[in-house]
Amino acid sequence: GSTLQDAAAESGRYFGTAIAAGRMNDQQYMNIANREFDMITTENAMKMDATEPSQNQFNYSSGDQIVNWALSNGKQVRGHALAWHSQQPGWMQNMEGQQLRQAMLNHVTEVATHYRGKIHSWDVVNEAFADGSSGARRNSNLQRTGNDWIEAAFRAARAADPNAQLCYNDYNTDNWNHAKTQGVYNMVADFKARGVPIDCVGFQAHFNSGNPVPSNYHETLQNFADLGVDVQITELDIEGSGTSQAEQYRGVVQACMAVARCQGITVWGVRDTDSWRASGTPLLFDGNGNKKAAYNYVLDQLNSG
Ligand code: G3I
């Protein structure tokens, strides 16, 4: 294949990007997105603060804009994210207990119902585990509603959009030896054992010099897949430049392609200048829309599989 999406499709995989609603009038951005990618994640437009700015008043305008563009161009969509401790609307941030639990479940139900039948995979719950060596849940207002809040969110999502894949999504879960990876793994194993509806695990894959692509990445993805879930690389970006950045990108593609249940890779933005990172050059296209070495290594690796 001569584009990322075509090359990935040869092994039955997708290649995606995050799209920001505010950049949809940038022709260069949209041309690259349309040419290279067949899976679209709304970078911010489906988050809780965007979709429910006032309680029970839902706003889907930006999300719909991205979804309609994607579907009308033959692409699929990842929904991001139904429940998260961050990017909560102001009215939710100070809620606690049963009131918050009900508001969260109502949010999951409403948003998943609005997009029913249009979403390939939902990030049902995002970033619910703590960093560091505890392997425990993150302390958040949602966690304080009870340890079963995550499975309650998954059940509500399944009821609202029964044909979408339901994912748990997190960062710093790439290295098999990290406590956070083990914590998520144990939760997924428990969900599978008890019949909680979970179909996939998303690995955000935000890499930098302090958190490089681990040499055991393939092992991590395979171990999760062996629990009976699909795995997806959902927000890939890698700090750096030139050949060393390109080699790390190649390693990520290699790891995914070596795991049958790794369904695809999404990069977190189109050009370096579109990245959430304030500085740096973590993506596959430079600020002028030119393909970087990292792009060429990714394309070659997709084609060699
Ligand atoms: O659009 C408003 C603008 O009107 C306002 O003037 C400005 C002032 O703060 O803010 C703009 O919104 C910003 C938005 O990005 C769009 O640029 C928000 O402040 C800013 O918080 C938001 O950052 C996003 C971040 O998540 C927080 O939600 C990034 O774009 C987005 O790339 C990033 O994505 C996250 C994933 O959702 C979860 N995993 C980590 C990943 C990277 O942080």
Secondary-structure map:
Layout: H1 4-9, E1 14-19, H2 27-36, E2 39-42, H3 48-51, H4 61-72, E3 76-84, H5 90-93, H6 97-114, E4 121-126, H7 149-160, E5 165-170, H8 179-194, E6 200-203, E7 206-207, H9 217-225, E8 230-238, H10 242-257, E9 262-267, H11 293-304
Parallel strand pairs: 1-2, 1-9, 2-3, 3-4, 4-5, 5-6, 6-8, 7-8, 8-9
Helix pairs in contact: 6-7, 9-10, 10-11
Ligand G3I binds next to loops.
Report on this structure:
The protein is α/β, with parallel strands linked by helices. The protein is built from 11 helices and 9 strands. An 8-stranded parallel barrel has the order 1-2-3-4-5-6-8-9, surrounded by 5 helices. Strand 4, helix 7 and strand 5 form a beta-alpha-beta unit. Helix 10 packs parallel to helix 11. The longest helix is centred in the middle third of the chain and has 18 residues. Ligand G3I binds next to loops.
The strand count comes to 9
Q: If strands are numbered along the chain, what order do they take across the biggest sheet?
A: 1-2-3-4-5-6-8-9
What ligands does this structure carry?
ligand G3I
Spans of at least 5 consecutive residues whose pLDDT stays below 50 are: none
Which structural class matches the secondary elements?
alpha/beta
Supply Rg.
18 Å
Assembly state (oligomeric): single chain
How would you characterize the largest beta sheet? 8 strands, parallel, barrel
In N-to-C order, the SSE pattern is HEHEHHEHHEHEHEEHEHEH
Query: What is the rounded distance between the termini?
Result: 11 Å
**Which percent band covers the strand fraction?**
15-25%
The percent range for helix content is 25-40%
Overall mean pLDDT score? 98
Compute the number of helices. Answer: 11
> What's the shape?
globular
